[in-house]
# Entry
Amino acid sequence: MVRLSLPVIVSLIAGASATGCGYKLAPCTDGNVCVPDSAECTMVIGRCPGTCTAPITDGRPCGFRIAPCDEGDVCVPNDASCTDLDVCAGQCYPLPTSTVKERQTPTTTYQACGGHVISPTPCPDDYQCIDDPRRGGCGMACDMPGICVPNDYEPCSGFLGLQCEDGSGLQCYDLPNDDCDPDNGGADCIGICLAPIKNEY
# Structure
């Protein structure tokens, strides 16, 4: 199963933009489509990581309960508004494994953002400010600072049971600022891989 993993390789097909997409990430731009990083997943419910990829026109048709895509391919709906591939058409896209690009070593410290300060520090481009899930509590709603994390953060948990990359030192924390709370009946909530806080206790 291919995952958006740090620091190891991320898989990209020819023409891909190297931009993460899927669960809680911004949609693809410039006409690109979001191709799931795993054949076990479908982007139609928006709960899986993927890679923004240039559209193709020669993919085998799929969807509508016809034959599944061949091994190594995944069905991507033709219409981004599709919520069930059993009732809409798609095309088979290669899983993002044709070419590889090394990604940067995972971040283990996180810039503070938000909170009760006169001039909160904005996050860099391609980062977002979230409540720090390692600390618990009510976060920025209670004037605590948040942390800047990459827009293409490494996801974990969820209904696929994604794990943080072995050897990275990162741990899986419930992703804050979404509408899925595992402590209040939320099932299969997506998490985020972060470096744990050290030497505080």
About this structure: The chain is about 0% helix and 30% strand.
